[in-house]
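Could you join me in thinking about how sequence relates to backbone shape in a protein? We need material for that, and I hope you will provide a protein of your own picking. Label the sequence line and the structure token line clearly, so we can match residues to local backbone shapes. Would you write everything just below, so we can both look at the same thing?
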Amino acid sequence: MGDARCAWCGTVLPHSAGVGRRYCHARHRQAAWRARRRWSKAEAARRTLVTVGSIS
């Protein structure tokens, strides 16, 4: 098994981080949450763009 890394910035997490830890700071966890939320809220707009592009 390799080193565990922060899912946001890629920094190696310390061995004492514990099982299931994905982020090195609460700020990175929050930034990832905001990015996922923006992505899901933009789903309708992406779907519309794909639909319009397929009609043309």
Summary: The helical segments are 26-41, 43-55. The radius of gyration is 17 Å. The CA atoms of residues 14 and 44 lie 39 Å apart. The chain has a mean pLDDT of 87.
